[in-house]
């Protein structure tokens, strides 16, 4: 951009030198016009001049009513796209000027005044409306505008002068608001956020596998075998968590000795709650990964090492896919919002199930709902020898043939 | 074969995102006071923050606006014959609607009026936050229609003029009126939707003022000074009224101090499911 401006400035200098030396009048006029055009491009004021009226079919700018400055601006800017030399404009009951213009203290201008790309320095009187595009209207002492004043891309400056009518100013180039990122930037930001969350969950999950694998597996099995029960438990727990906390604090405060435990409970209760939710969530992902991996293995796919680390990674991948859908299609009107809602609901469902499973299994200590209850006698050879396992005899057993199958 | 298709799809997705550029633009509009005695002001403001209040004494009105140039255009026109000014923003019909507040640009409008002109104020707000500081103005009538907005109307000082009526319609937003007595309006009418309405009945009430509350589902809280006498007539199938401090006769509740109070207000409540709560202060 700066290089472009330098090139333009060089062009201006060259054309200026040419204009000074040019003897032919028409050539000088053409060069001056080109100079104005270049100055226009450089955002500098053009050489002040009157804009000649257009013919009957030519451009007209009516500034007798200024109620719609936006439309007037559009019209004038459209007009300014034509080269300066060819600029002709009719202002009903008035005149148009290009560049800075002033009205002297003992002058009185009859009619409307339109100034394009310049300031209006008013010391005297204007009987009509005054409009300035890309310039200020400066009202010096003694100046009087009998009509209205409008500054588009500028402002009205009061230095002792008076506008009898209305004053409007439409600000300069629109102020850039806090720009929203484009799709690519937004998607990259969201993707980075998702990656960060997944990485954190991965680290936490690996830590769990490393230090509390039996507990994680028990919670995971509880999820697999008692999904609905876990969900209901998790839902109830979410509803009751805050009242329970409140009651606990109230009870401690009311009891004399318990007051001392309040700070401890204030810290520990939320900590336990968060641990149960996050741990349960990871257990759900573990269960998802395990189910998926086992299904693949059952269909004959070779899986390198079917362990908890893999299960967790597969589950996290599934979660990531849900949110990836929102990242890719989140910009689509309505559908994007629906995808976001779906992702939120899916994540909440998983977290609720996990929370419930963590509570049901007492953080993986009690495998009551994990579907792995094996009576001690089932592990003995005597039991297996004495108890028919298959066929008609097994069905006719007093227990109705419902002996639990040993977990493989 | 698959890779070019995937690349093309990604390119389409990348190009189909929302445009980054958004623009706010300033618009100032004012008219000097040239001996006008009255003014009807119609303010329409769809979204953003609106503030209305007293301004310089040498201006008939003044508007300082910052608006979303993509979706709105400024409105500023004065009809001298009708002594009416229209102020605010109107939609251009392009660019759609920014539904969420996160996407909405911070449009701001500040409208001022002098204290010397009899003012008929007609304000319509959409999803906007409005603060109308009308204390000290010469208010003739007030018509306020607020949609999903949060609106506060203050009457910190007594109205210098004579207010005939005030009509307020609140849709799903919150509406708070403070110092309603200072408005000097003899007749107040509220049309409530589902939002919460809080009306502070403090201030210097004119004699025998009347309040009409037409509520749908929302609740109204009337904050009444203890020196004010209140008589509330309830009309409604399931309308609720907290009658503490009132004696009941039919569907009319009369405050204990009604007979002796220096200022008295008749309140008529027409409500389907809404509730009215009077808080003495």
Please describe what this structure looks like:
Chain A has 10 helices and 15 strands. The longest helix of chain A is centred in the middle third of the chain and has 43 residues. Chain A is an alpha/beta fold and 408 residues long. Chain A starts with a helix and ends in a 13-residue tail after the last helix. In chain B, 5% of the residues lie in helices and 56% in strands. Chain B contains 1 helix and 21 strands. Chains A and B meet through strand 13, strand 14, strand 15 and helix 4 of A and helix 1, strand 1 and strand 4 of B. Strand 15 of chain A pairs antiparallel with strand 1 of chain B.
Number of E-state strands of chain A: 15
SSE string of chain A: HHEHEEEEEEEEEEEEEEHHHHHHH
**What's the number of helices of chain B?**
1
Average pLDDT of chain B, rounded to a whole number, is 83
Rounded to the nearest angstrom, the radius of gyration of chain A is 41 Å
Shape of chain A from CA axes? elongated
State the major sheet of chain B.
21 strands, mixed
- How helix-rich are the residues of chain B, as a percent range? under 10%
Please mark out the parts of chain A with pLDDT under 50 across 5 or more consecutive residues, or reply none: 10-25
- The SSE string of chain B, one letter per element, is HEEEEEEEEEEEEEEEEEEEEE
What percentage of the residues of chain A does DSSP assign to strands (E)? 5-15%
| CA distance, first residue to last residue of chain B | 78 Å
- Largest interface pair: A-B, 30 and 32 residues
Mean pLDDT over the residues of chain A: 82
How is this fold's topology laid out?
The complex is a heterodimer of chains A (408) and B (281).
Chain A: H1 2-21, H2 25-41, E1 49-51, H3 69-79, E2 94-98, E3 101-103, E4 108-109, E5 112-116, E6 120-122, E7 125-126, E8 130-133, E9 137-140, E10 144-145, E11 149-152, E12 156-159, E13 162-163, E14 167-170, E15 175-176, H4 183-225, H5 227-254, H6 262-298, H7 308-329, H8 335-360, H9 381-386, H10 391-395
Parallel strand pairs in A: 2-5, 3-6, 4-7, 5-8, 6-9, 7-10, 8-11, 9-12, 10-13, 11-14
Antiparallel strand pairs in A: 1-2
Chain B: H1 2-15, E1 23-32, E2 38-54, E3 59-68, E4 72-79, E5 84-91, E6 108-113, E7 118-133, E8 138-146, E9 150-154, E10 165-170, E11 174-178, E12 187-192, E13 197-200, E14 209-215, E15 219-224, E16 228-235, E17 240-242, E18 246-249, E19 252-255, E20 263-271, E21 275-280
Parallel strand pairs in B: 2-5, 2-6, 2-7, 7-8, 7-9, 8-10, 9-11, 10-12, 11-13, 12-14, 13-15, 14-20, 15-21, 16-20, 17-21
Antiparallel strand pairs in B: 1-3, 3-6, 4-5, 16-19, 18-19
């Amino acid at each position: 951009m700066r290089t472009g401006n330098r090139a333009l400035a060089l062009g201006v200098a060259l054309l200026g030198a040419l204009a000074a030396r040019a003897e032919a009048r028409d050539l000088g006029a053409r060069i001056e016009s080109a100079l104005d055009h270049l100055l226009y491009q450089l955002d500098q004021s053009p050489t002040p001049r009157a804009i000649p009226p257009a013919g009957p079919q030519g451009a007209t700018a009516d500034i007798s009513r200024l109620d719609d400055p936006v439309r007037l601006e559009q019209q004038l800017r459209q007009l300014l796209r034509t080269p300066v030399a060819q600029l002709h404009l009719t202002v009903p009951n008035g005149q148009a000027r290009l560049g800075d213009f002033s009205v002297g203290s003992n002058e009185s201008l009859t009619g409307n005044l339109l100034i394009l790309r310049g300031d209006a320095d008013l010391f005297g009187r204007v009987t009509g409306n005054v409009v300035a595009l890309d310039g200020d209207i400066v009202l010096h002492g003694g100046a009087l505008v009998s009509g209205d004043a409008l500054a588009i891309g500028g402002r009205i400056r009061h230095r002792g002068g008076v506008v009898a009518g209305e004053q409007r100013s439409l600000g300069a180039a629109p102020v850039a608001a806090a720009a929203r990122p484009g799709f690519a930037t937004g998607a990259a930001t969201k993707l980075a956020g998702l990656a960060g969350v997944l990485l954190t969950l991965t680290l936490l999950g690996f830590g769990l596998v490393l230090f509390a694998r039996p507990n994680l597996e028990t919670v995971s099995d509880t999820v697999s075998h008692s999904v609905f029960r876990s969900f209901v438990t998790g839902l109830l727990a979410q509803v009751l968590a805050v009242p329970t906390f409140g009651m606990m604090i109230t009870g401690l405060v009311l009891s004399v000795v318990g007051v001392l435990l309040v700070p401890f409970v204030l810290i520990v209760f939320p900590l336990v709650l968060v641990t149960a939710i996050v741990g349960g969530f990871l257990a759900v992902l573990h269960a998802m990964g395990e189910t998926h991996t086992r299904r693949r293995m059952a269909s004959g796919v070779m899986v390198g090492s079917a362990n908890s680390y893999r299960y967790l990674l597969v589950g996290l991948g599934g979660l990531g896919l849900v949110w990836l859908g929102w990242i890719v299609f989140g910009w689509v009107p309505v559908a994007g919002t629906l995808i976001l809602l779906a992702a939120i609901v899916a994540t909440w469902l998983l977290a609720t199930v996990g929370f419930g499973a963590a509570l049901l299994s007492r953080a993986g200590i009690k495998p009551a709902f994990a579907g792995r209850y094996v009576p001690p006698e089932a592990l003995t050879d005597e039991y297996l020898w004495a108890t028919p396992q298959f066929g008609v005899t097994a069905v006719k057993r007093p227990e109705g043939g419902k002996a639990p199958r040993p977990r493989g | 074969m698959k890779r070019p298709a995937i690349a093309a799809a990604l390119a389409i997705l990348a190009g189909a995102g929302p445009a980054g550029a958004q623009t706010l633009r300033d618009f100032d509009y004012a008219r000097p006071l040239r001996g006008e005695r009255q003014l009807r002001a119609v303010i329409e403001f769809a979204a953003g923050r609106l503030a209305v209040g007293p301004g310089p004494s040498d201006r008939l009105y003044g508007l300082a606006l910052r608006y979303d140039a993509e979706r709105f255009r400024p409105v500023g026109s004065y009809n001298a014959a009708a002594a009416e000014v229209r102020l605010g923003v109107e939609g251009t019909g392009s660019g759609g609607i920014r539904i969420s507040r996160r996407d909405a640009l911070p449009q701001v409008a500040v409208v001022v009026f002098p204290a010397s002109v009899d003012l008929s104020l007609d304000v319509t707000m959409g999803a906007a936050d409005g603060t109308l500081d009308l204390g000290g103005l010469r208010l003739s009538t007030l018509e306020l229609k607020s949609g999903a907005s949060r609106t506060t109307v203050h009457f910190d000082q007594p109205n210098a003029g004579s207010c005939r009526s005030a009509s307020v319609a609140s849709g799903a937003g919150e509406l708070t009126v403070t110092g309603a007595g200072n408005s000097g309006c003899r007749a107040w009418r509220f049309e409530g939707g589902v939002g919460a309405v809080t009306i502070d009945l403090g201030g210097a009430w004119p004699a025998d003022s009347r309040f009409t509350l037409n509520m749908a589902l929302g609740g109204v809280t009337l904050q009444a000074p203890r020196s004010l006498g209140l008589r509330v007539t309830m009309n409604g199938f399931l309308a609720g009224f907290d009658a503490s401090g009132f004696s009941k006769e039919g569907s009319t509740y009369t405050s204990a101090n009604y007979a002796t109070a220096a200022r008295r207000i008749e309140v008529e409540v027409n409500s389907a499911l809404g509730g009215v709560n009077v808080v003495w202060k």
